[in-house]
Amino acid sequence: MRPAKACDVVVVGGGIAGLIAARELSQRGLHVCLCEASSRLGGRMMTVSYGGRDDVELGATWVHWTHPHLWAEMTRYGLEYVPDPRPEVALVRDGSQYRAVPYDEDESVLMGLLTKLLGGTESAFPNPQRATPHSPELGALDGLSIADRLGQLTLTDRERDWADSYLPALTGETNEDAGLGTFAHWWSCAGGVARAFLSMFEGGRIAGGTTQLVDAVSRDIRGEILMSAPVTKIEHAAGQSQVTLGTAEIIQARHVILAAPINTWKSIEFEPPLAGAAHRASLAESGGAKGGHKLIIHVAGDAPGFQAIMPPDEALNLVFTFTKVPGGQLLGAYTRIAPEAPSQAAVEAALKKLNPDLALVSIRTHEWTHDPYFQGAWTYRRPHEMSRDLDISTATQPGLSFAGADVSSGLNWMDGAIASGLAGARSLLETDAKS
Description:
α1 runs parallel beside α13 and α3 (103-118) crosses α6 (157-171). 33% of the residues lie in helices and 24% in strands. The protein is globular. The strands form five sheets. It has a seven-stranded mixed β-sheet, sandwiched between helices. Strands 10-3-2-14-22-21 form a six-stranded mixed β-sheet, covered by helices on one side. A five-stranded mixed β-sheet has the order 1-13-12-11-15, with no helix packed on it. By secondary structure, it is of the alpha/beta class. Among the domains are: 5-44 and 209-288 and 373-433, FAD/NAD(P)-binding domain, CATH 3.50.50; 104-189, Polyamine Oxidase, Chain A, domain 2 (Alpha-Beta Complex).
């Protein structure tokens, strides 16, 4: 057995929450060792070069003024904001074909649906950046699925189209499996305003990609960063923690911050075992949406920028122009709830229905659900899970605390991950100062 490495804190997971926690702790003088299981940093922030662009996001993408912690980090590092192009038209199904209508016209239908579905739910989140897990208002929402709430509403045919296709595309779950609580939380972070809510999904991005932020934060970490270093065991006894890596290397520390996705916790042995909400979450496979897929599609052809929704049985459910490129477009698309991303033939068939003039060039995606270091895509909670996961955001057990978008009490995207990393580091520093 190799001699044990020693440090003050081990951070497990090199997503943005783990990076932020490691930066904060190392800059306050603690010896930090960050262990990242994969060969890259950033977690579900993943920028790639594709279709002639070097800022294509296969994971987390959007920035909005309702993301205060993300904005603060962008300001800290001088990162610029790039607004996304607004669609020129909406492609609306008319029988077996699609026709173009002004985008503003169809968007107003969607905003009406969202207001019917979510209006008033913001009362359950008086401070959405620090949601309270056991309020009666949240309890009432958390037990409902989106389908339960839709069943209480009277919808027009077009609103029903939006509900059947757009909502699962955002949540990565069927409306029957998607909890109303998370959607209501997102709505509350937008101030209960439909226009602001939609802008959170289509407002703009970090210039140069989210990798710019990942690289900036990682450069500020004064400790050790171990790559391709999956953690297999976390132990704590007699005031000392011990972390075992897949390489059999052992790291001893006073404390461990677990910032890996919830769905991967079951691959780690804990001694003592995880307790309470953390234990229940580790068994449930709920930290990331299990069925949704995000595709970036390169198409050739001259067409206006558009957004379209397609029925649930189609290969694509939400399709929009990501950016124009010479001779064509890069489209963003979210797919039906299925174990595998759709085939190239299925994507091509769906695109031909939308606009026969669009020729498929290629498709780029990342299979987050099948990636062993994530086992799920963006964070979305099923009924009854939100209160449980909010408990984890403040939970500790001897020598172990938690961080990440999956357990954030704020907006559970990049912003919540950053807030969670900051809070985890601050709590540990306060405890350290008292000891």
